[in-house]
Amino acid sequence: MVRMTRPEPAPVRGYTATKDQLLTRLRRVEGQVRGIEKMVEEDRYCIDVLTQIAAIQAALDKVALGLLDGHARHCMREGAAEGRADEMATEMMAAVGRLMKRG
């Protein structure tokens, strides 16, 4: 007899409610990166390429801030309920530190 098991439900994350928006933004960024690749292939003016890179960085920053917001409002709340508030805060601040390091 073959026993059928149900697949595990996907975990609920801080961004679950806005997942479609997040994926749309990331696909837009992906398109921008392809656009920069084409600009380089076409030997476009350096400053124009750098301007597009700055736009991508700003778009990724917006995605990151949205993820941090969801993490603070959802994941950290769950962590606090489980008695892990300090651990979760340390983890989040380390992530913020990594995001702020550039160049």
Automatic annotation (TrEMBL):
<keyword id="KW-0186">Copper</keyword>
<protein>
    <recommendedName>
        <fullName>Transcriptional regulator</fullName>
    </recommendedName>
</protein>
<dbReference type="InterPro" id="IPR003735">
    <property type="entry name" value="Metal_Tscrpt_repr"/>
</dbReference>
<dbReference type="GO" id="GO:0046872">
    <property type="term" value="F:metal ion binding"/>
</dbReference>
<dbReference type="GO" id="GO:0003677">
    <property type="term" value="F:DNA binding"/>
</dbReference>
<dbReference type="GO" id="GO:0045892">
    <property type="term" value="P:negative regulation of DNA-templated transcription"/>
</dbReference>
<dbReference type="Pfam" id="PF02583">
    <property type="entry name" value="Trns_repr_metal"/>
</dbReference>
<comment type="similarity">
    <text>Belongs to the CsoR family.</text>
</comment>
<dbReference type="InterPro" id="IPR038390">
    <property type="entry name" value="Metal_Tscrpt_repr_sf"/>
</dbReference>
